[in-house]
Amino acid sequence: MNKHKPSLHSAFNLLSCLEEAGYESHIVGGAVRDIVLGRPMGDIDIATSATPQQVMSVFSHVIPIGIDHGTVMVRYQSHSFEVTTYRTEEGYTDFRHPDEVAFVNSIRKDLSRRDFTINAMAMNQNGDVIDPFHGKKDLSKRVIRAVGDAHTRFNEDPLRMMRAIRFASQLQFEVTEEVKQAIYNQASLLNHIAVERIAVEFEKLVAGKGYQNGIHLCDTLGVFSYLPIFSAHRSLQVAVPRQKLFGFAQLITYYREQTPTISLQKWVKDWKLSNRVKREALSLHSALTEYKQHDEMTLWLAYQLPEHLAASFIQVLKALGYPVKKEAFTEVSTLLPIHSIDELAFQARDLIKAFPNLEKGSWISSGIESIEYAVVTKQLNNKYEHIKEWVDQWNPPASN
Ligand SMILES: Nc1ccn([C@@H]2O[C@H](COP(=O)(O)OP(=O)(O)OP(=O)(O)O)[C@@H](O)[C@H]2O)c(=O)n1
Predict the structure, then answer these.
(1) Residue of the nearest CA to atom 23 in ligand 1?
(2) Among 54, 127, 173, 252, which residue has the least CB neighbours within 10 Å?
(3) Which Gene3D superfamilies did the record assign (predicted)?
C-alpha cells in the first residue's frame, strides 16, 4: 500500500481537513495499536463519517479503490492513506467478503465489527483514544481478545484465526482462552481461505519474536491440520526452528531439511509461492548442500550464493542449529579470487583455441565450469598461462 514511511503528522492534518469540512474522522486499526505500544507503525488507516463521494470532494488526489466497501485511497502531503466510511458488515457466506456493507453513523459501531480489542481503538485529531472494548487494558495485559464473541468473529473471517496467532507471535502476547477455544473448534474454516492470504499471516508468524509460541499454538489448536503440507506431516507440525525465519524462501529451505522427501517445488506449488521465492529457496538449498558437505562456509559457496541472500542463509543455518557466526559469509567472500565468471582469465574462446580439432559441444561449458571451480577454490591461479598449462594436460578435455 503506502510505499513511504507512514506520517502521523500528515494523518493528523488529514483528519483536520475532514473535520473542517464537517465530517468526523479517526485513525483506526493497527496504527492506533502501534502508537499506544510505541512500536513502529505500518499503514495508517482512517475511518470517517464522510461517504466516499464526500471524501473525494474534500481532497484533490483520491483513488477509488473499494467504493462499494466505502474505501478510497487519499494521496495527501506525499503520503497515501486508506480512508473508509464508518461501516458494519453483515453475513459472510463466502467467508471472504461481507454479503452486505452498511454505512453507519458512529465510530463505535465501526469499531465493533473489528477482530480484536487491541485493533478496535480509534484516535481523534487531538490524540484522544476512543476505546469502547478496552483495547488499552488488553495491550497492558498483553492479551489478544476478540471483540465480542470469538466464534462469530472467526466465522465472519476465518483468516482472523491466523491473525490471532500471528499477533501473539509478533507482540509476544497470549491469546485468551475464549480465542483458543474458538480456533480449536473452527480451525477447519481455514479451508475456505485462499492459501496466499494464509501465507502472508504464516510468514509474519514465523518472523515474530514469539514464533515458538506461535508454532506451538498452530499445533495445539489444530491449525496445522489445515495448512498445506503441514496437514499431512506430523513431524513438521512439531518442528521448531532454533531462530526466527524471515520469508518463505528461508522457511521452506528449513522445512525441506526436516522432511527431504518433500521437494521445494512441492512447497512452492502447494503454497502458491512466487517465482522469486522459488529461485531464492533453490539458491539457499544448494548453498546448504555445499555447507553440509564441507561442514563450513566454503569459497565455492560464497561465490555461488547471491550476496543479497547471505544474511538469509546464515539465518537458515542458525534455525537448523549450526553454530555459525553472522560474519562467516563476509569473511569467506573477501577471500574470493573472482566474483563472477567474467573475471576468469581464461574464457570459452581460449578453450576452443586450445583444442582446435575438437568439434564445438557441451565440453566447452563443462570445461569452463571446471576452470571456474578450480580458480574459485584456489587450486588454480587466475592467470592465463597457469590455466592454459592446466588445460593442456586435458587430453581429451575433462568432459564432453
Ligand atoms: N480480518 C480482519 C482484518 C482486519 N481487520 C481490522 O482492520 C484493521 C486493519 O487491518 P490490517 O491492515 O490488515 O492489519 P493491522 O491490524 O493494521 O496490522 P498490520 O498492519 O500489523 O498487519 C485491523 O486493525 C482490524 O481492526 C479485521 O477486523 N479483520
Answers:
(1) 29
(2) 127
(3) 1.10.246.80, Beta Polymerase, domain 2, cca-adding enzyme, domain 2
CATH-assigned architecture of domain 1-140: 2-Layer Sandwich (3.30)
Q: What 3-state DSSP class applies to 339?
A: coil
Task: Give domain 341-392's CATH number out of 3.50.30.40, 1.10.10.10, 3.40.1190.10, 1.10.246.80.
Answer: 1.10.246.80
Per-residue confidence (pLDDT) for residue 400, from 0 to 100: 47
What is the radius of gyration, based on Cα positions, of the chain? 28
Q: Kindly report the protein residue whose alpha carbon is nearest to atom 6 of ligand 1.
A: 114
Q: Alpha carbon 252 to chain centroid distance?
A: 12
Residues 323-366: pLDDT tens digits?
999 899 999 999 999 999 999 999 999 999 999 989 999 999 99
| 276 annotated ligand-binding residue | no
Atom of ligand 1 nearest to the CA of 160: 1
In this prediction the pTM is 0.92
Q: Is 43 annotated as a binding residue?
A: yes
d(CA 303, CA 341) in angstroms, rounded, equals: 10
Atom of ligand 1 nearest to the CA of 147: 28
